[in-house]
Structure formats: structure tokens, C-alpha cells
Amino acid sequence: MFLSIFDIFKVGVGPSSSHTMGPMIAANRFLAALKDGSDRIPGSGTLASLKASLHGSLAFTGKGHATDRAVILGLAGFTPAEFDPERATRIEAEIRASHRITTPQMGTLAFNPDTDLIFDYDRILDGHANGMILSAYDDAGALYMTQTYYSVGGGFVLTERELTQQADDIPPPETPYPFRTAADMLAMAKSSGLTIAQMKRANELSQNTQNTLDAGITKIWTVMNDCIDRGLDTDGTLPGGLNLRRRAHKIREALEAERGQNLSAPHTINDWISVYAMAVNEENAAGGQVVTAPTNGAAGVVPATLRYYLDHVPGATPAKIPEFLLTAAAIGGLIKSNASISGAEVGCQGEVGSASAMAAAALCAVLGGTPEQIENAAEIALEHHLGMTCDPIKGLVQAPCIERNGLGAIKAVSAASLSLRGDGQHLVSLDACVETMRQTGRDMDHRYKETSLGGLAVNVPEC
């Protein structure tokens, strides 16, 4: 399975790639299916109304993740990549007041969010913990079309049909370096004499033009970096009811005030790494524009590590940004293909753990690491997130998520540094670590997989 850098890094909107972006994308796909009409139920009348039901983790933490809002706006034609917050607020208010929704190309249809958008806490769909059913009805109230969608993490959405298809039935696109495992990746790097980033670039160029690839990578970093800056510049309280204060702005001010005064301990660099990540995830929690890396809940780790490299590492150069992001995407693709990046499927080890592995590998690469050292860096970072649960308080991507991104970035930097002190030879392979994560996620109790039914979510008062 070939996953492009633009699959791993998507420009979107907070607070969640699986619970906000995914449902919005699913709603868009349902509109396209209605327009196509090939799945319309024979004999149905004129399209007249819409309904939606959310299941599993989408139901349990949907309110905190703004899943209901994402579905409403997706049915109104909004997309994560082109999201206009002011217009979205106005359109949502109109839909809630009128109980009607104006869809692109399908006209105005009946839709009352209070009764037609159901949080079904009792029925968990078989395909994935993040399931939703979208249905349309005709003017006589008969079913016109229905489709089940699964938001499988990182903004990836599959229909029930797509989810059940055998991978072998879908031939992967031809690429010059089709590595499916880390072992394949290392073997191909050795035989070709290329770096991981060079192989990843060659694979991308087999699917995209050079201009498209380069412009896309530039946009990814621009959005990431702008998100860091907005988070560092913005103060106040995050929405959602926890009354959680933004901290990145004041921490950055304190760090800048200490510069040149010989007041900082050496470990203060960790505060810089953390504050970059926290700035991103505070923006995500506020519903701002972020880049999945590989998810929204873990969106701060990769940009924070790259910003650390650019701002604090002697000899760092922006010319290395493509190498950093291509390497990170290669590792993220391996993890998603062989395990999961969905907190609802494997817990936070699949989100912040995956992001930390991606960032560690990328930093190791731009610091001159060999392919073996890069693989080692990814393994170190992922190994020490194994078993991490996803237990967001009140279902919000705030606590423990925001700080957790800061620590994930710190682990990434430490993992890259440790790997560079060795020769790339190590006991636990990245492939073994990824498989362990998959098995651990499979065995993890559902209360600790983004349902907010266990852990911190039930032991910390919602105040």
C-alpha cells in the first residue's frame, strides 16, 4: 500500500482528525454518492431529507470533538482543507434554526440536528470503533440511500465496502521503491545507495510532478509553522468547558525573557521543544487550522521537532525541510500500513507514539544519520510509547493531549540523539515494535481507546 506524504500530512481543522475531519469528509463523500445515484434504492421517490447516526468512539466523545458540527457542515459542503470558520458558524446557526440544510448540487433538504443526528451509545459497528451511518429519505419517508463510513484515523475515511475489501484485490500503484516494512526499506536503501528521503521522493515523483511535490511540501511546513506562531501569540481559555488556560504564550514570553541572562539551566531546551508542540495543540483544541501529523491529536510533535532543529541546532538549514518531512512520512506510512494511527483503535501509542517515531527518524536524517540509525531512532521513540492509552477528559483533545505532544517531541529528540550515538545495530527492530503496538492496541480495553470511559477521563473532575 503506497501512502503519499500528502496522505500522512493533510491540512485540516481541529480538534480531531478522526472525530472532526473524518466525519466531515464522510459527509462530503455521502453528498457525492447522492449526486452519483448509483447506490440509490430502486423505486424510491424524490430526495427530501437526511439523517446521521454516530457509533462507538464517535458517539462517546463526539460532543467534545465537535463531531456533530463536522457532520452538519460536511453535509453543507464544507471541507477540512478549505474550512472558513466565520462562514461555518453562520451556516451552522442557520441549519439549527431552520431545520433545513442546503447541500451543494442537491438542493435544500430537511435536516434537524436535534433529532436527525443521533449519538448511538449502545451500538458499536463491527468494522471500526469510529463508525457512522448516513442516510437519505424520499418525500414519502422511505429510505432513498444509506452508507456506512469508518473514520480510521488521520483523516482517512473508508466505506463499509472499502473496509471489507481484501488488500490484495486493490493493486498498489507502481513505485520504484515499494517498501512495505522497515526491513524492506533498509534493504532497498542498502542496495540503491539512497537515503530514506531520496527513496520516498522517488516514490512520490512516480505519482506526482516535481512542482506539485515541492509546492505541497512547502505548504505543509508553512501551515505547520504558522500554526506554531499563532499558538505562541494567542492567550486565553480553550473552549469546551474544562476552562483550560492556554499556556504556550506565557511560557514563550518567559523563555525569551531569560535569554542572555544566564538564568536558564541546560534542560530549558526541553521547554522550547514542548512549547512549540503545545502551541500547535492549543490551536487544534480551539478548532484552528493544523496539519495531521499523522493525526490532529498528535499534530504538534513533528512541527515542534522541526522547529527545534531550525531554531536551536547549530548549522541547521531550511534546505533540509523536505528531507525531514519525507523521512517522517515514510515512517508514518509504515506504521499506518502495518498497525494503526487511530487512538480509537490502539490508544495514544498510535497517535503521539507514531508522531514521535516519525519526528525522531526525521531529525536523525537531517542530522546525518544512516538509514539504520534512522530506523533505530523511530524504534526508540515508538517503543517508549507502547501501551499509552487515549483517555481524554470530557472527550476534549486538551488534557492530557496537549502536554503529551510536548513530551512526545522531547522523546523524539532524545531518540534521534541516542541513535546517532550508535551504529544503527540494535535489539528490537522497528517492525517488531510496530507489530507489538498493533497487538497491544488489539488487547487494550475499549475504555482506554478514545471513549473517555476510563483513565484520567473518569478520575479527574470535569470542571
The end-to-end distance, rounded to whole angstroms, is: 44 Å
Helical proportion?
Answer: 40-55%
Give the C-level CATH assignment of the largest domain: Mainly Alpha
Q: Give the overall silhouette.
A: globular
| Main β-sheet description | 5 strands, mixed
Tell me the number of strands: 9
Mean pLDDT score = 95
Radius of gyration: 22 Å
Count the domains: 2
CATH topology assignment of the largest domain: 2-methylcitrate dehydratase PrpD
Sheet with most strands: strand arrangement: 5-2-6-7-8
Backbone structural class = alpha+beta
Detailed description of the structure:
With 463 residues, the chain is an alpha+beta fold. The protein has 2 domains: 17-167, D-3-phosphoglycerate dehydrogenase, domain 3 (60s Ribosomal Protein L30, Chain: A, 2-Layer Sandwich), CATH 3.30.1330; 175-459, 2-methylcitrate dehydratase PrpD (Orthogonal Bundle). Helices cover 51% and strands 11% of the residues. It is built from 20 helices and 9 strands. It has a 5-stranded mixed β-sheet with strand order 5-2-6-7-8. Strands 1-9 form a two-stranded antiparallel sheet. A hairpin with a 4-residue loop joins strand 6 and strand 7 (143-153). The longest helix has 24 residues, at 210-233. It starts with a helix and ends with a helix. The relative contact order is 0.13. The mean pLDDT is 95.
